Amino acid sequence: MESINLNQSIAKNADFIQHVGEESGQPVQKCYQCGKCTAGCPVAFAMDYTPNQVIRMVQLGMKDELLRSNTIWICASCSTCSTRCPCNVEITHVMETLRIMAGNSGTAPEGKAKYVEIMYNALLGTVERYGRTYEVGLVLQNNLKSKKLFNGADMGLPMLQRGKMKLMPTKVKGAAEVARIFSEVRKMEGGVK
Ligand code: SF4
Ligand code: SF4
What is the number of the ligand 2 atom nearest to the C-alpha of 41? Predict the structure, then answer.
């Protein structure tokens, strides 16, 4: 993150701060950086700014950095973060507001839609198979398909060493039921089983 004068950023981007708060309807100013949102986010490892950093950056008016970040496109809108937030900040709404702003301002990076599609499919694939996210498999699938083999390695290796991610996948008890739900949804959508 570039070094910036925070007071200047807040003053310069007061409209942005107010707009994000109003459009998202979220009490972003209440966030006190406990980090619980990021701890639960299944795709934080692939983000350039973690969920708690995004909220802090909104508070600081860091408009340009946020509208150019990959985080707002990677967020899978799963709401895991929101269920953990002691301040009831629905981060998915904040991300959505930022995506709309990025789209309107033309700062959405080229090819991002394809990247997001790869990420979503990889995420859903691991949930269907194991009943939960399998971060290492998700990274590997994502990197192979996007042809960026070592993407995220700088964050992933320390997380493996600290036991925050498991090398091998584990299935939850209800994995078969989760797979059945995926199958039913495909049928409802008229897709192939
Ligand atoms: S969980 Fe809520 S209060 Fe904690 S850092 Fe995230 S947004 Fe802020
Ligand atoms: S809604 Fe987005 S930021 Fe929140 S946990 Fe899910 S992927 Fe992460």
Answer: 5
Intra-chain end-to-end CA distance of the chain, in Å = 45
Ligand 2 close to Cβ of residue 70 (< 6 A): no
pLDDT in tens, 138-179: 677 666 666 665 566 666 666 666 666 677 777 888 888 988
CATH number for the 6-105 domain, one of 1.20.120, 1.10.3470, 1.10.10, 1.10.1060? 1.10.1060
Give the Cα separation of 39 and 37 in Å (integer): 6
Predicted model pTM = 0.67
pLDDT per residue as tens digits for the range 17-52: 999 999 999 999 999 999 999 998 988 888 899 999
Number of the ligand closest to the Cα of 92: 2
Nearest to 128 by CA among 49, 67, 185: 185
> What is the domain partition of the chain in residue ranges?
6-105, 112-188
Instruction: Report how far apart, in Å, the C-alpha atoms of 141 and of each of 73, 96, 121, 124, 146 are.
Output: 18, 25, 9, 12, 8
Please identify, by atom number, the ligand 1 atom nearest to the C-alpha of residue 30: 3
Apex CA 35: angle with CA 101 and CA 26, to 5°?
A: 40
